[in-house]
Design goal:
alpha/beta, 8-stranded mixed sheet, two-stranded antiparallel sheet, 21 helices
C-alpha cells in the first residue's frame, strides 16, 4: 500500500511543468590515470590490510531490506577476528571493495564515508527512518515543486537532496580519496542501452567527466532510481573530448570481436564502452536503478575474471602481483513475495502490475546470476582464469602453465548469503515476503541484521574461508 501511494504521488507531480535544473557533472579536458577514485590506486594505500588477499563484497538491491541485510553482514565481519601475519585483526578490515546496487549501495557508500561511525549512526540516520514516508511528503509539498519538478531535474534529484540531508552531509567522491576503508562502487543502468554504469573514475573517464565533484547522494539516488517510480538521473556526456585511451586489455579483446568465446562478456563491455564515448550522438546519459542491469552487483566481478582469462594485458593492468587469495561474498536480499492474484478472476491493478513488472525480472535475473556463479565455481572452478593469473604471477606463458611449470597458489572463495539458505520454512517465508520499500519496522531491520550474521556463520564456504585466515566466528 505504501509503495502504491509513493508511486501515485510521484507520478502525479511528474506531469507538472517547471523550470527545475539538475546538477551538472564537470568535464575533464585530459585524463590522468594516476588520479581519481580508482580501485587500483586506492586499495594499495590501505594500512593494516593483507596485500595477498582481494576481498570483495557485492550488496544486492531491495530497498531497506537490502540495506539492513548488507549491514548485518558488515556487523558480522566486524565481530569476527582473524590472524594476518601473526596479528589478530577484524575480518571486516580485510574487505577491499564493495559493489552496491540500489538499497545495497547506501550501505556501501555510507561505510566508505563513515568508517567505524557507521555502527553507531547508520540505524537511526537511515535504516530505522521512514525514508519512503518523508519522500512522499516532499513529493506532495508544493514548496518543492518549482525546484525539482519539470525541466531536467526530475524526481530522483528530490530524493538525492533528501539523502544528502539525512545521510551523506554533502560529501562528494573527493571526500573518499583519503579514507582508509574499502572502495565503494554504486551501480546504475543506462536506460537507453541497458548497459551497466558504475560510479568510479574508470567509467566516468568514458564520459570525460570528473567523478570527484559528484555527490555521493546522487550516486545513491541513481542506483535506486526505480523506473517509473523515480526519474532517471541525467549526466552530461563529454565522451571523445579528453584523449581517452582504452585500457591495454581492450586490444586483446577487440581481436576476438568476431568470436563469442572465450571473452564474450568482456567483448560486450568493450562495445558498451565505445557507445559511452559517442557524445556526438549521445550528449546525455540517463541512468536508472542499477538492478535493471545487475541487481546483485556481481557482473563486473564475473567480467573481470573472464578478462583475466582473455587478456595478458588485463592481468598486468589490474595489479595482481601479490594476490594469493580472492574472496567474493554476494549478499543477496532477493525476495519472493506471494500474492493472492491467482485466487481472483479480476487481474491486479495498474500500480501493482507496474511494481511487479519491474521487480520480478530483476529478481529472476539475480537468481540466474548467482546460479551461474555457483555453476562456474563448482563445475569449472574458474580453472582457466585462475591458471592464467597464477602464470602471470610466475612470469610464465599459458602453454608453460598447462605443461606443469610450478606456479604460485591462488585460492578462490565465492559465497552467497541469501534468504534461500534459511532452513525453517516459516522463517524463510517471513524474510522472502518483506517488501521492497524504503521503510521497514525497526523489529524487521533488527531481524534482518541478525539473520545476516547467522547465515554467514552457518555457511560452509565461510567456515572454509575463516580457516584459511585462522579465524573462528563468534558463537
Amino acid at each position: 500500500m505504501r509503495a502504491n501511494r509513493l508511486l501515485a504521488a510521484l507520478l502525479a507531480i511528474g506531469v507538472l511543468a517547471g523550470c527545475a535544473t539538475r546538477p551538472i557533472n564537470e568535464p575533464i579536458t585530459r585524463l590522468d590515470p594516476s588520479t581519481g577514485y580508482r580501485p587500483y590506486l586506492l586499495m594499495p594505500k590501505r594500512v593494516s590490510n593483507d596485500p595477498h588477499t582481494l576481498f570483495v563484497l557485492a550488496f544486492s538491491g531491495g530497498g531497506t531490506r537490502a540495506a539492513a541485510f548488507s549491514y548485518g553482514v558488515l556487523e558480522e565481519l566486524r565481530r569476527t577476528e582473524v590472524t594476518i601475519g601473526g596479528q589478530r585483526r577484524r575480518l571486516l578490515d580485510e574487505v577491499d571493495l564493495i559493489s552496491g546496487v540500489s538499497g545495497g549501495s547506501f550501505t556501501a557508500l555510507a561505510y566508505a564515508l563513515y568508517g567505524e561511525r557507521l555502527f553507531s549512526e547508520y540505524e537511526q540516520r537511515f535504516l530505522k527512518r521512514d525514508v519512503q514516508g518523508d519522500l512522499i511528503e516532499r513529493a506532495l509539498n508544493p514548496l518543492y515543486w518549482g525546484k525539482y519538478i519539470g525541466g531536467s531535474a526530475g524526481r530522483s534529484e528530490l530524493a538525492a537532496e533528501y539523502y544528502d540531508e539525512i545521510l551523506f552531509d554533502g560529501a562528494t567522491y573527493a571526500d573518499l580519496l583519503t579514507k582508509q576503508g574499502p572502495v565503494a562502487i554504486a551501480n546504475g543502468t543506462d536506460i537507453s542501452t541497458g548497459s551497466r554504469f558504475s560510479f568510479y573514475q574508470n567509467d566516468f573517464d568514458l564520459l570525460c567527466s570528473d567523478l570527484t565533484k559528484v555527490r555521493l547522494s546522487r550516486a545513491a539516488a541513481t542506483s535506486s532510481a526505480v523506473p517509473v517510480v523515480l526519474s532517471p538521473v541525467t549526466f552530461n556526456n563529454y565522451g571523445g573530448t579528453c584523449n581517452y585511451e582504452y585500457p591495454a586489455w581492450v586490444a586483446d579483446v577487440a581481436k576476438s570481436e568476431g568470436r563469442v568465446r572465450p571473452s564474450a562478456r568482456v567483448l560486450k563491455r568493450y562495445q558498451e564502452m565505445r557507445e559511452f564515448q559517442n557524445s556526438k550522438d549521445r550528449p546525455y546519459i540517463h541512468l536508472v536503478d542499477g538492478g535493471v542491469a545487475d541487481n546483485i552487483g556481481m557482473r563486473s566481478v564475473l567480467e573481470a575474471l573472464e578478462a583475466a582469462g582473455a587478456s595478458a594485458a588485463f592481468r598486468a593492468d589490474i595489479g595482481f602481483g601479490a594476490i594469493r587469495r580472492i574472496a567474493v561474498i554476494v549478499v543477496n536480499a532477493r525476495s519472493g513475495p506471494k500474492t493472492d492474484w491467482d485466487r481472483k478472476e479480476s487481474p491486479p491493478g495498474t500500480f501493482a502490475q507496474l511494481l511487479q513488472a519491474s521487480g520480478v525480472p530483476i529478481d529472476r535475473y539475480s537468481f540466474e546470476t548467482v546460479e551461474m556463479m555457483k555453476d562456474r565455481q563448482e563445475i569449472y572452478g574458474w580453472r582457466r582464469e585462475i591458471l592464467l593469473l597464477r602464470a602471470h604471477l610466475a612470469g610464465a606463458t599459458e602453454a608453460e602453465a598447462e605443461a606443469g611449470v610450478p606456479l604460485p597458489k591462488i585460492d578462490l572463495h565465492t559465497l552467497d548469503v541469501g534468504f534461500d539458505a534459511i532452513p525453517e520454512p516459516d522463517e524463510r517465508a517471513y524474510f522472502m515476503n518483506l517488501p521492497t520499500s524504503f521503510v521497514l519496522p525497526a523489529r524487521d531491520v533488527d531481524k534482518l541484521r541478525e539473520v545476516a550474521g547467522r547465515l554467514l556463520r552457518q555457511s560452509a564456504d565461510y567456515q572454509s574461508l575463516l580457516r584459511e585466515f585462522g579465524g573462528v566466528p563468534p558463537q
